[in-house]
Amino acid sequence: MTGTVLAVGDLAMDRENYDESFVATADVLRAADVVFGQLETSFADKGVRAPQARHAVLARPDGAAALGRAGFDLISMAGNHVLDWGNDAFFETKSHIEAAGMRTVGAGANIAEARKPVIFTLEDGTTVAFLAYSSILPQAYWADERRPGCAPMRAFTFYEQIEHDQPGTPARIHSYPHREDLAALEADVRAAKAQADLVFVSCHWGIHFVRATIPDYARDVARAAIAAGADAILGGHPHILKGCEMIDGKPVFHSLCNFATDLRMDEAHAKSKSWNEIRVLAEEWEPDFGSLYNFPKTARLSMIARFEIAGGEILRTGFLPLYIDRDAVPRIVGPEDPRHGEVLAYMAAITQEAGLNARYRIGADMVEIVA
Description:
Elements: E1 3-12, H1 26-31, E2 34-39, E3 42-43, E4 58-59, H2 62-70, E5 74-76, H3 86-99, E6 103-105, E7 107-108, H4 111-114, E8 118-121, E9 127-134, E10 149-150, E11 155-161, E12 171-177, H5 179-195, E13 198-204, H6 216-228, E14 232-236, E15 244-247, E16 250-253, E17 258-261, H7 267-270, H8 273-279, E18 301-310, E19 313-324, E20 330-332, H9 338-353, E21 359-362, E22 367-370
Parallel strand pairs: 1-2, 1-17, 2-5, 3-4, 5-6, 9-13, 13-14, 14-16
Antiparallel strand pairs: 1-18, 7-10, 8-9, 11-12, 15-16, 18-19, 19-20, 19-22, 21-22
Helix pairs in contact: 2-3, 5-6
């Protein structure tokens, strides 16, 4: 008996009818044994916006129930929006998710809760543990012994001036993991592996909007997690797809892009200095005032990661290509659809550009990832 685990990218619905976001994918999600997603909003009646929150949308409490109806089982709260609306909204969000029959991972009332794995048992008895961490962290969004928040996997940046006699010229950018956070992640993975057959690690990380580029620290964290016993890495945050790799036969999805993510745009925002500074990071990004999906053009290409599991092992790994149009509804595109080939070609190109080793082939039920 084979079980199926699915994982999707960012979830941040901002519309009147939240169920609309899943009209094209709910049947596939509900058929899986475990469905994982990354939350990028809060489900609460009210909150106090944190001063360090850059883009924050307070979603209605019924958004959690919509995720449950769509087929989700596990929601990661380890991300850069976890405390956008304060502690009360954080706890209310967590409560609504759990009341809707789902579980949360990667965040809690303190660091011990945030680092605790969530374990599922598939029909054949295989146990699958999930852990979640965030490297994209506004100040004090991470949990500690007495403060709520998410499990951190912080990183540091070093700028190396290339031409020392040329002031103002671009620098090389290096990044590396926070030693204590990485040691904690490794310990968590080892502990989870002692309890479960398989360990999935979600990392909210990477460089948003910039094509292909994988930061040094993400490569370091992926290698360390797999060396500690992780069986798969689920990356998120960049809002565009990034390439995949196989490390010791274990799959690493560096970015799953978006899934159900609404983003409106008005003329004032389109003229703002802050948006235009970010806009130039992407290959092509034009405001669309009538759209619910104001992301770069390449963000239309997305995926659902898919894992076939039996006997305590991952038998096959791959993804279901998605296309997200102006209505911000993700739709699965099959091999007969030209957009399927567009996703596949883009993944092949950015994987090669990043120097990653994954290769892709079209299977009967998904695009398979091979080394």
